[in-house]
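Follow-up to my post from last week.
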Amino acid sequence: MIQSQPLHVDVDPYHSRVTGASHIVERVDPVIYKNNPGILSPEQLSFYEKNGYLVFNSLFSSQEMKHILSHVDELKSDAGKQELAYSVVEPHSRELRSLFHTHDYDSLLKSLACDQRILGIVEQIIGSQAYIHQSRINFKPGFKGRDFYWHSDFETWHMEDGMPRMRALSCSIALTENNEFNGPLMVIPASHKKYVVCAGDTPRDNYKQSLRQQYTGVPDEAILTNLIHEHGIISSKGSIGSVTFFDCNLMHGSNSNISPFPRSNIFFVYNSVENMLQKPYCGLEARPEYIAVRKPVPLTKRKINFNDI
Amino acid sequence: MIQSQPLHVDVDPYHSRVTGASHIVERVDPVIYKNNPGILSPEQLSFYEKNGYLVFNSLFSSQEMKHILSHVDELKSDAGKQELAYSVVEPHSRELRSLFHTHDYDSLLKSLACDQRILGIVEQIIGSQAYIHQSRINFKPGFKGRDFYWHSDFETWHMEDGMPRMRALSCSIALTENNEFNGPLMVIPASHKKYVVCAGDTPRDNYKQSLRQQYTGVPDEAILTNLIHEHGIISSKGSIGSVTFFDCNLMHGSNSNISPFPRSNIFFVYNSVENMLQKPYCGLEARPEYIAVRKPVPLTKRKINFNDI
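User reply:
Got it. Predicted complex:
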């Protein structure tokens, strides 16, 4: 078990949820912590450093993806049969929207999180061992998938979970095709290099609301307009099995989905073991362990063939 | 003034809002009423007949579009200053969402509706003189533009306005770029050849709700899934000034818009003068004149140069 290492910052460089107006400050942390050779080429590292994301059409064989898909189907079906603490359901239909913490209790997901094709890239970017800060499977249903407003994950992880610095990233594995119709992830490239200080207080137990629809920790329209005017929007479209890595501070969101095509993804959030959670900067109680892991297990890369599991 | 000509149909072929399940029946009306030469080539007519829509990148010069845009800006600004019977505003922000009936009281919009580049195509498709059944300017704001669920306009016009047969079409003129981010119009090609009988009653004064969000007269998910499985989805993307014509019974909808880019369009709905409104088939009172014109003025094609207006 890694011990928490307080960073002894006298002034929090990423304070947010202020009483004044939303505004932009500079990111004080690097994006790439280790420019050593690894899985990513210098060009790929440079693209990630500049844009804050990187997409791979296929890191896994189609045979492996079939195996993973069928496993997730089983998980979903099992989760539908019981009231799980780790699941978020649609308020009206009771349809499953997210299944959290799967890396912790499911052996295939645990292996997937440690797969060297993914974890190798993660370690290269954060320059240390990693642990899972949060894992989830998202099921954005067809016909009634809601939009998710622009936000930086780091702003929430900092304020509500106590993640001190920007040394974390998300990895999303597509379980369905992401196309222009089913509300794909939209990112503002290069937005990870600025930090948007948001206005407003954090309500108690905000996560119960914010996992469905986020109202706290969202930038104001003028700032978003400027960011998008400067950098544009990229939507992450791709077929089943495409893998997207994106920086913890990249501004992103998604539109609604009235198409019949669901949009499902496996999400792993990796944090550096040298960036352990402190007390939440918003001053409230920490979120539950299945939303933000406070007792982490450092991960070790493994060579895995999912056809054999 | 054209007199109403009852169609003496013993059995309504397009009855909807039934107590049983939503289901599909055949369209009994043609799509193209006059295959004579005209503005549209045989290929264009055939495309429209098969798919139910047709897009033109530019029917107007960029100079004309500039003129039209600046006029719409003025209209919007004037409408913002007063409480108009013809405007629909967002419930919370009071932001203008739609401005109805503009062809009736605004001379430029009146001219635009009669422009031979548009009306010529309309007349070729419906095979008669046309009148405006409904006109509006839609302002889908950036950041908070809501989605609009799948529906056939004709189903509503039939049940709530008493439009007897399918001999009408919409013409949409883009006032902003329509792109993958700002919730463009999505259509199911060829869906206009089937009629989806919808389940459920019509609430009184349904239009007050349905202009914001439609709950009545929407097909069920199984039917939509089949339609989209068979025909796919096409989204109508294009730059300012692109013009889309689509059949009154084409299934369409749009996703939400969290991008900063507004999506604004001028909409003209043209109906044939040989397809005059009857009493609403849902048995309730007719909707107001600014939503569904009952005292029409047949239009006469004009050659117009909007630089001179």
